Amino acid sequence: MADYDLVIRNAKVVTEDRQLDGDIAVKDGQVVALEPAIAGKGRREIDAGGKFVLPGGVDSHCHIEQKSGFGIMCADDFYTGTVSAAFGGTTTVIPFAAQHRGMSLRQVVKDYHEAATPKAVIDYAFHLIVTDPSPQVLGQELPALIKDGYTSFKIYMTYDAMKVSDYQMLDILALARRDGALVMVHAESHDMINWLAHHLVDQGHVAPKFHAIAHARIAEAEATNRAISLARLVDAPLLLVHMSEIEAIETLRQAQEKGLKIFGETCPQYIALTADDMDKPGVEGAMWCCSPPPRDSEAQEAVWAALKDGTFQTFSSDHAPYQFNAGGKIPKGDKTTFKEMANGVPGLEVRMPLLFSEGVQKGRITLQQFVALTATNHARLYGLYPRKGTIAVGSDADFAIWDADKEVTLDWKMLHDNVGYTPYAGRQIKGWPITVVSRGRVVVEGGKLNAQRGSGQFLPCASPDSSKPLGQTSPELQAMSRFGAKPLF
Ligand code: URP
Ligand code: ZN
Ligand code: ZN
After folding, report:
1. CA separation for the pair 27, 164 (Å, rounded)
2. Ligand of minimum distance to the alpha carbon of 269
3. Pocket around ligand 1: residues whose beta carbon is below 6 Å from it?
4. Where are the domains of the chain?
5. How many Å lie between the centroid of ligand 1 and the Cα of residue 343?
6. I need a surface site. Which of 232, 320, 332, 343 has the fewest CB within 10 A?
């Protein structure tokens, strides 16, 4: 009779703060022992051969089976998206349940569950996207949804169909502060982008490369500063997503140096691509187009510095998959202007290997930082820790055996998404997760998937520590309460 369901032997187990050479025992989907040598036997035993065993990745920014603001459906559904994630060493995804204006948030959440439940092969939580903070949403739906485990929401400062005003941002931040949720912000100045885009298009500059000009660096820097200021007014924590730009990163760093709870995320496209990638014949450059756009090598260095010094807490894919056709990236075929292209690049599967190869192997970050940036910090920030994001007794048995010597030349055909291309084709990668375990199930092994559709579980998120205010509102709000004003939250 076996003592355990699964034992991984001879592993170099790395978490965000330690390395243990030994064995991991798993029972009923959880880690039950982590020791130099486990005496009991497993029903299944895997010899890791001295390889690294790292926590399964948590990808806390990905768009799956979601309609964009233009109404274009992502190329990946919850099956292809989660399969692709698993092959890249990720065992938990937090995609978005996206409200479009006029929709009930409650109904949106129901619809996303209906899409995910029969298809997901790994575990998932949901962030909400709030585009219509109506009295019904602010007064009833959001507070109730936070209680039900949807404790983070993204808001947009740009995109005609998605953006909220500064006033609405304050409403949302104040609510999040009161009810224990974390607000994620897409920070780009809508009017700067629109003004530049209008003049570019007016003069016939419509190719994909002009996307990087319209989405100016200062547009990200200004909106970052504004978002932080709004958060300060009401003493609400905030997470800035997909950061790409030197001045915005410096603004984030300064806010953190002041002791503010402002968090930052970056993504593979900002270490591995530049605006030059969009400079291709015709509309081909659309395949590299995302918002904010990849910048230049100087910005890449600033992103690396912020990954290394802890200014960024998370490295997420921002997987926003669209095929290169009229149903996806280029709705008007070769007549599509940069304003009409679907924004976003795929990255669920390559997120961890790219950071491992470019970061750990090249000595830019440590293995511990890699674990924190790809798994632990995501789980902590969004209320899933310690169930997810680490390897510890009592945690879900989510981990991957990495072959640090495996060399791979990226090519879409080796990936498992439904996109039809990868913006990283031809890149040399060293290091890949070869065996992936999700809640004790060996879901990827020998290049094959072994997971049933619908076997992933929904994870309600706790109200995270990251969402707790500092307890110091702005002097003006303090003055208001001294004057006897009704509390605003
Ligand atoms: O270009 C991007 N990033 N598209 C996806 C939507 C978003 O803003 O994250
Ligand atoms: Zn965004
Ligand atoms: Zn996104």
Report:
1. 46
2. 1
3. 63, 186, 242, 290-291, 318, 320, 343-344
4. 1-489
5. 6
6. 332
